[in-house]
Specification:
By secondary structure, the chain is α+β, with helices and mostly antiparallel strands. Helix content is 23%, strand content 43%.
Length: 116
């Protein structure tokens, strides 16, 4: 009985030290959070365009709207916000094609909205 207890103790010790040999293991959730994409989400509903962006760095984010002739129609700069949410209502806009541009530290993102 004593020898079985010794074998179990040694096996538990070996299994425990094998886990620490490669450093602490990261869970799947931690691995997925490290590689998360933070691109903005554009959602069209009728004549409205909704923009959502998770801004973990809380750095400056610029929102712009251009018409088809590349004229600036709207511009807003937001900083210090974790979540940026903006709704663009094109219900009363002139018939045209509009481009919504989101610029943050990671890049520039565009979405086109056609008003008929």
């Amino acid at each position: 009985m004593k020898s079985v207890l010794n074998y179990v103790t040694v096996a538990a010790f070996l299994l425990g030290t094998m886990g620490y040999a490669n450093g602490p293991a990261k869970s799947e959730v931690e691995k997925n959070l490290i590689n998360i994409e933070l691109d903005p989400v554009f959602v069209k509903k009728g004549d409205k365009l909704f923009v959502n962006l998770l801004n973990l760095s809380q750095e400056k984010v610029t929102l712009k709207v251009y018409d088809s002739q590349n004229r600036l129609v709207f511009k807003e700069t937001v900083s210090g916000e974790l979540v940026i949410e903006k709704a663009f209502n094109f219900e009363k806009a002139f018939k045209d094609s509009y481009t919504v541009v989101v610029v943050d530290e990671s890049g520039t993102y565009k979405e086109t909205m056609s008003v008929k």
